[in-house]
Amino acid sequence: MTIHKVTAFITREQPEGRQLLLFQHPQAGVQIPAGTVDAGEDWQTAVLREATEETGLTQLTIHRYLGKIENELAAGEAILNQDSYIFSQPDKSSLPFAPLFSRGMTFEVGEQAAHFHHTTYTEYDQLPNPTQITLYIDGWLPSERLSWRKTRHYAHLHCHKETPYHWTLPSDRSHTFAPFWVNLQPKPTLIVQPQNRWLDDVYAALLRP
């Protein structure tokens, strides 16, 4: 099973030129709106939904499709194809860890035992220097809940609403997101990898009419 992801490159026209919408995550740094395509959802619906969830904007339209990455997973990685707990042992009767991990999250995967894979999950706070680990989970995931293919779709969206240059909104994990506009020229610098690569992939297309 392939898990599909979307990335929303939202732009607007200003007297100083075309601008791109980014947002400041409280831990992960500066990001481009992105997320997972839900089961039964098409990429068009998903990219508009994710853009609204992470920016608060509703007056958005898809300008054009910018292509895709066929498999974004690195060697030794797998992605959840359904919500799941991580178990302390390769046995569903063993102790599950909290929190419940969401479909679309990526894990490092090691040995297989019975119908489980040994997995680790790490979250980082990108803002301090040096970067700090904020969450590390080591355990076992049922193999049927893992997929080894992740396809990412790029879309160029237009914003049709006047907004300030920056604002804030709550996220679904008790965080506060802070969207803000930046000029597309010169090319913005992003903190989070692989998002610099995403912008590199589509930068020339974003500058076209």
Description:
This protein is mainly beta and 209 residues long. The protein has two domains: 2-71 and 150-206, Alpha-Beta Complex (Nucleoside Triphosphate Pyrophosphohydrolase); 77-147, Roll (SH3 type barrels). 12% of the residues lie in helices and 45% in strands. The chain has helices spanning 43-55, 195-206; strands at 2-14, 17-25, 29-31, 34-36, 60-69, 77-80, 106-113, 116-125, 132-142, 146-147, 149-159, 169-170, 176-183. The strands form two sheets. Strands 1, 2, 3, 4, 5, 11, 12 and 13 form an eight-stranded mixed β-sheet that branches. It has a five-stranded antiparallel β-sheet with strand order 9-8-7-6-10, with no helix packed on it. Strand 1 and strand 2 (17-25) form a beta hairpin. The two termini are 36 Å apart.
